[in-house]
Amino acid sequence: MSRSQDRVARVGELFGAIVHDSEEAVAGRVHDVRLVRDGPGQGLFGPAYRLQGLVIGPASIGDRLGFDRADTRGPWALKAPFERFHRNARFVEWALIESLTEAEIRLNVTAARLPSVPALTE
User: Fold this and answer.
1) pLDDT digits 0-9 by tens, 31-62
2) pTM for the model
């Protein structure tokens, strides 16, 4: 797997990047990341965080407010439409990324093979 990371220095730079699948179709945009705390020990801070994958899909104000998460509480009138809108969001495991730059990410699978976003765990 060859990853072109010349222009990506921080996770925050991935937000909004267009994601293309292995057939060059647009799979969505990055609007969240998932980290796991299973890296090497960092002294008093404990295990380091590792980027597990990306949450992609149609971007909206709802994901910025947290309404794309199933465990978010809020007014039903806002939560229901945002949940419906985000049901098409997909999760991209880090291993499925073929290449990435600040503005574009290419996958080594088709968008149809991407799973739904898993629930957050502590």
Assistant:
1) 889 999 988 898 888 999 889 999 998 765 55
2) 0.73
- Structural contact between residues 106 and 18, judged by C-beta atoms closer than 8 angstroms: no
Which H or E run contains 85?
A: helix 76-86
Give the whole-number percent of the chain exceeding pLDDT 90: 37
* Other Cβ atoms closer than 10 A to 116: 12
Rounded to the nearest angstrom, the gap between the alpha carbon of residue 5 and the centroid of all alpha carbons in its chain is 17
65 CB-contact burial (10 Å; exposed 0-12 / middle 13-18 / buried 19+): middle
Residues 6 or more apart whose Cβ sits within 8 Å of residue 36? 49, 50, 52
Burial of 122 (0-12, 13-18, 19+ CB in 10 A): exposed
Beta strand segments in the chain, E: 18-20, 26-36, 50-57, 90-93, 97-100, 104-107
Question: Of the candidates 115, 122, 72, which has an alpha carbon nearest to the alpha carbon of residue 96?
Answer: 115
Return the SS3 of 23: coil
